Protein 1
Amino acid sequence: MSLLDRHIGFVHALREAGLPVSLAEGLDAARALQVIDLSERDSLRAAYASTLVKRPSHRPGFDVLFDLWFPASTSGLYDPRQEGGSHAPDLDLEAAPLPELRDRLARLLLGAEGMNEFARAMVERFGRQPAGPGRQNWFSYSVMRALSPETLMARLLAEVLAGQERGGLAEKVARQRINENTRRFEEAVSTDVRRRIAEDSGIERIARSAVRPPLEQLDFLRITKADLARLRREVHPLARRLAARLTVKHRLGHRGRLDFRRTVRASLSSGGVPLNTFNKPRRPHKPELVVLCDTSDSVASFAHFTLLLTYALREQFTKVRAFGFVDTVDEITRFFVPGADVVEAMTRLTQEADMVRFGRTNYGHALEEFAERYGDAIGPKTSLLILGDARSNYQPPALETLRRLSAGARHAYWLNPEPTAQWDTGDSLATAYGGIVPMHECRNVAQLAAFIEELA
Amino acid sequence: MWFASPADVRERLSAVDYLSDASIATSVFLAGALGKPLLAEGPAGVGKTQLAKAVAAATGAQLVRLQCYEGLDEARALYEWNYKKQLLRIQAGSDRDWDATHDDIFTEEFLLERPLLRAIRSEVPTVLLIDEIDKADVEVEGLLLEILSDYQVTIPELGTISAVRKPYVVLTSNATRELSEALKRRCLYLHLEYPTPERERDIVLAQVPTIEAGLAEQLARTVATMRTLELKKAPSIAETIDWANTLLALGRTELDEATIGATLGVVLKHASDQTRARKELAL
């Protein structure tokens, strides 16, 4: 494959993975290739990244594809003895017994050089599984199982701390460093596994499955704990961006009444003739928000994230009140005082709030109870926002109550984290509820941000 | 040519105490070699503005800075006619006919140069720093497009002014809002993140030369640990350096739990962040 073909193929793969790479940017990248030293892989990667990737959330996907299209080595050229020799003349990675390999790994996790070479050799040795005659599969879990870097932690900590007190700051710092290096090792192994699969069965095939969607496109219902933590970090930047956009929108919106004072003042410079008139900006529309959310396990991460975001956006609303339910309702506004710690608010929310009676979601009962106990929260200025998947375990839906609630509010919206195709399957009451309160599909952060922009 | 190669960038930037890594060096080199603006984005305090200053210092170029803020307009960013002086001119020469006066008052003499025009017209090598572009209104981005892609400015009364010498343009942004696609497309993009502990140690050593290497290492590792906590605002490089200076001023040579607890306010500036750090790090 010539360099040009490889460049074109790479740009195409990026587009296929959802990165908006324009023609002009592709040309910039090609120009950049002419002026940098192509034998230096790091600057090649940086050159592509700076010309093609203009959003940080696209960077992980870019890195995966770059490693596939411009691999650090190829199996044909790889000579373990030669390459390993430069770093560890005492260790033959292909034949050394397991304990020695684990010793080596322990040193790498403490920050020694040569992580990538070691990872490649280990994939060569442990990652291969025969799959039919003449074919083979590559797996990273078999490498991880053979070396099990997690089990090295206790030993490494003992070594680093060397008699210092346990449980203190020193241990935290050491743990963080070892975890970070373990993650790097895992990444190096899976990168090499992907490269080998690509060599066996073609880059395009693996490229399609290897790239994870960027954070804002992740499905709320399939989110992992680590992703949720990453999302929580994004809450404040996202809220700031949304707020900035909303302010711009308000300012650009319809002009308000004549600003008499400013007009007269400006007319002084033209001898009292008002050449330019000035208008007062319209008072921003700040709705009161009542959030009623399903906090049962199936949709908890969606509810948590949305609550956090609405609270981070407090200034855009006059007042925010939040209620949570599983099969009975409790007000949860008190957990989100200004300046509260995000993680703590969430743990306290699940422990202290009284939202569970029998433990199975019951929209009907929750709605009845909400209308009875907190019905006065809803007034003609309120926007009611309901979050949930509308799956009520075949209980009576209390449609009348919902109709009454939404009629009392200024606006009512329902955000459903399930894809539209799954609505009305099984115990879902999406259409029944959606007939009363307009229901929006809200599967990821991008959709949520679009909705909030419309709301405020 | 601004730089000869990425390696050259690294060397010359480190000579002015700015420690770069592979991606910074390559982007800075490419911005010079391809003649494109460099857009540096990242959290506050990771050295975006410092990068522009370092490029100017390393190449011996003059630095022209445009600080963006809400309400920044053409008159403050690009050029303005000196109305008062024009008025004086008209009154002083009241016997002359209109055409002569008109030709006279729209000349160089009555033009007030603002940073963008100054950078374009500069005869010496210039680094133009457009700082915190995300703070400016969306219209300013439109204003910048002509300058960033063609390095020229159109003044209706004078015509188009092209750059004598292409300035080296650096834009910085804290990502408080999304910049427009049109602007991003014209720039090379550099995302600056918090550095690795090793690089941060070197930065502290370069910026605070009197600090001991061991203490710098401890500082860098502790700050890296703090960044893994879920904080509202993670400590930046600038704050690490402040911390190093604080410890020096207090005469501490060891970073133990008590010292961290006493000086936590230097790095963490939210009450909830401090409580969290105290709990998680067992201070």
Protein 2
Amino acid sequence: MLRIPLPMQRMQLRLLSDDAQAAANTLAGMSVVHLQVMDKDELAEYPAAEFAQIYDRIKSRYRKILGLAGLPMMTASTNLEQKMDITLDQLTGIDDQLRQLWGQMSSLEEEQRRLKEKSQAVKQLRASLQRFLSLDIQLSRLGRKSQFLNVIAGTIASKNRNHLQQALSIVGYALTQFYSGEGSDYVLIVGSSEQEEEVQGLLKSADFRELSLPEEFKDEPQLIEQQLQQQMQDVEASLVDNSEQIDNLVQQHSELITMVHRLLPRASAYASLSTYLKGRGRLVSLQGWVPESETARIQQALDETLDYPYQVSFATPTTDELEQVPTKLKQSWWITPFQSLIGQYGLPQYCEFDPGMLFALSYTLMFGMMFGDVGHGAVIITLAFLLRNKLKPILVVGSLAGLSSIIFGFLYGSIFGYEHILHPLWMSPMHDPGHILTLALYWGIGFLILANLLSIRNLWVRNQRQQALYGAHGLVGLLFYVTAVLSLILMFEFEREIAAWQYLIMLVLMATILFQGWQHASGTFVERIVIVLIEGLEYLISNMSATLSFLRVAAFSLNHVALAAAVFAIAAMLDTFGHWVTILLGNVFIIVLEGAIVAIQCLRLEFYEGFSRFFSGKGQRFRPLQTEVY
Amino acid sequence: MQSSSSAHVYLHTRVSLLADRLLSIEHLQDMIGYDLQQIIERIEQQFPDQPLDPATTSIENWLYLRMYTDFQMLLRAFNGHEYRFLKHAIHWFELFNLKMLIRGKFSGVSESALSEQLIDVGELAELPLQKLIQTDDPFEMFRLLEQTSYAGIVRQARGIFEEQGQELFSLDSALDRNFFLELVGRAHFLSLADRQQLNSVFGALLDRNNLLWLLRYRFIYGLSPAKSYYLLTATGNLLVTAELMKLAKLESLQSVIDELPAKLRALLAGQQDIYLVEQIMELYSLDAARRGLKKNNRLLTRTFAYLLLREAETRYLIAIIKGKQLGFDQDLISEAVGGLV
């Protein structure tokens, strides 16, 4: 039932630099190597670094060119049949050509921006025409040089207006706002011409946008409107022309663009090795993690592709290396959708058990126990089916949860809250709440024991043997928990007193756990005592609360019946129409609200009471070297 | 507000723990006498969980990374207006990158050289740094910047570039000004209690900045009083609007010091060198932050004060390490770490 992630081998590949690109493309084509930076530094050079740098530049410019031309990113063929290597000179040559092309296109884009800005300015001027007409000043003076008076009209960001006004007051200038909108203020600035130069410098720093008004503004507003319209048309014509120039440029260089389009996928794998491929002279080396099942295929592929002698070795990861090994899960189709929920907690480390199946089964089971109802389960399955395109994992997760609800619905004899239509195959939770609560408690105990066993296994594999044997989540911890639970069961279920030897066993086990904590604690003698005692107390409380936490499994199954009973009680007080509307809305309420709460509670039990005991979630995902697709 | 009182207590404790690890100026001065390895060991003692791995990162980036990791950890515990305020405060560091980037592009620095100079701010980054580095010319960079939260300064930057970069410092000041105005704007949404306590730390920082820039504009760059005043940021504790307008009109460093409010005048009396004034004001604002961290009970103020102190510590440590690497004289390194005052 419980699996570990796919077994991995450390691959070390040593070859001649002449074969490096071919090796990169071969490995990328197979998607089987998770690269790792080499920890030994006997090879000090990075032969692919310069190549990668130029490759990145080409990729960036290629994307910018396509973006400006409005062309979609074309899907390149990943067929790497063309075996010939791409040389650094070739790449540099293409980079130069693209730089020149992008240089021209960038100028056109800048021109486009200027034209758009101009278009915006003309629009703004047209919009402000009326605003200027409403001003009680001689408009022809605006923008005209005068011997004594300097009058400037323009706009400034509203948030800067006060500050500018204060700064202008230092040179004896006045500022008046005559319109405000869209974060900008339209202002008139008036002062002595003597300080004009100083004021211009200030306005430039303030990002003040002067509105230049034509001479005729005062006398013939219609004429101005015509002129502005003409300006707009000219700008629009220039924009069209600019767009055509961009298209023409792209067309003229279509051969280059196509070449880059074909070249990028071929170069991507080798470029990805920039920090991984190390070398000295012609000898280069590369290392990474590969699935154990792929080693023979890798060897064969390299044999077929590489022209020069090479050396490849595969090794099982040592205990020290376990944390570096990436995790590749092998899961059935029905567990994979649950992975998105598990992923909220993390990914298992390579050496850890993959909790996928345990999670999927226990989650489904607990959901059914807490939300057992044939009708509600059927609705959940229907909803999961309807929402399958919007939320992919929901079809499987929802269907299994719904199915579990249906099964428990039959066991409880509940359909849409009615307890008398179906005969319970087992019993209704309300029939004997005490029994249901006891069962939930046993379920929790079983769940926690399993979690503890997994913790022991994981600690053991990680070479934390002392923790695995004597730690709170190790064997001694488990024995203490089992002894304590058995003693309590004997006491409460069978009314037998706890014997002295049982106390003694628990005492010895607890002392072992505390001693283990003592060995790992740091600080002064008193600090260590405090730490150990608090940790011991925390261990006792957390185990007790975790066990009791599973009572919620029973509590929610009771809650489900109680909610339905409340809906029926309200419905019984109403007429026929009101009765059925209440039943309908009540069921919707139960499915949506209680269903969501139960789903979250199940997740909480899994994460806090289960995962936190054995699952670090610190695994790193297996990300194979792949050919980039554009 | 924090989501719960326990989170509040946790964060207070966190800030206190981190604050305890801060190095004093005296301690930093002592470290100038250490060799490089001893300095690194001393820093590693502070944060044993984040040791330096020279194979993967430079010392400088390691220091920044440690700083950002701690900032992120503190930031996560806030929400609402407090979060928005602190998040913007942390973006101060991204501003360094932007300034460096603009200067680099203006002077045609290569992509790789530029990449080496920029600080990796990790998850806190708002700028599409990689794309900006890969731009082929300043105009392309401006077009890209227009799509970011820094769009407001692009027009000015474009103007400066077209005029052959005559006033690059004014672009720096425009960036600083935008940053502080936004921060002051965000501070307005904080609770009254937070604003009142924050003022002691934030106000001192604004006073320091305003005085420094005023002196630079007037007596180093020779700007007019009006322009100098305009380029200043929002007002702080002691240097309010009327005060700054009056100071901007003065013609010498001495007359500015003579006209300062009593507290600052006493601090700067007799100083004739703007660089020394800068150092004194830096220590003045750091003292305010240190007091804010110790004596305040508002979490926001304590966190903000910690950010300022930690940034200064990181800056000083980098100055020491770089000084050591370049073989500078100890006195010279000491100057960079507040050793002149």
